[in-house]
Every structure is written in C-alpha cells, then in structure tokens.
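The instructor's notes for this session suggest beginning with a concrete chain rather than abstract definitions. Hand out the sequence below and ask the class to guess, before any prediction is shown, which regions might be ordered.
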Amino acid sequence: NSTDQTMTLTGDYTSAGDFIAGPQETLAPHSSEIVTASVDNFGGLTAVVNYGVPDTNTIVTFQANNNAGAASTDGTQIGGTHHNRYDVMTNVDTGFPTMNAVYTIFPV
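After discussion, reveal the predicted structure:
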C-alpha cells in the first residue's frame, strides 16, 4: 500500500482451496502483507482480495491466477468513483505450481 490511506478489506475468496494466511482487515499506509492460499489435488487456483480506499470511494481488486502454464494477475483492477486517482502495478515473480506475485497500489 503505497498510499497515504488505510485500506479496508471488503472481500476475499479463492476459486478452490483456502487461504493459509488470509488478508488483514486493514492495511496501513505505506505497508505490505503476504497472503497465501493453497488447494489439495492442485489443478489451479484463483485468489481474489478486495480493499477499499475509504476517502475516495475506490476499490482495488488484487487477483492471482495460478494455473499450469498461465500464472497471471489478470483481473487486478481499480474501480469506483475516484479510480483514476490510483494505479496498481503487478509482477509475477514465479509461476505454477508455486506462484509468487507482487502488487503495489500508488497515487497518480
């Protein structure tokens, strides 16, 4: 969270499996967290975490798609009334079967 706002969790889910270390209820300004999810009998997993930026009515969706041959952050986006005040950068460091991705939200 590279903003000056405390972000508040508005929702999270996995397409299969469970969060091992789920997202925090709030994410302080200029801080980070590690979220992990896993599934038995692995065939693929999508994990989604939504945070709100309260002073701007903005929601950021962080999405990780960990599928054989296609690990991506597709679906990551910023929406809401003032979505144009922020941008989000993503990077997939490692892919399937153990995906590691970095997400950064920052003001524009």
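Then share the key points. The chain has a mean pLDDT of 93. The beta strands are 7-14, 18-21, 26-27, 36-38, 45-53, 58-66, 77-80, 86-94, 100-107.
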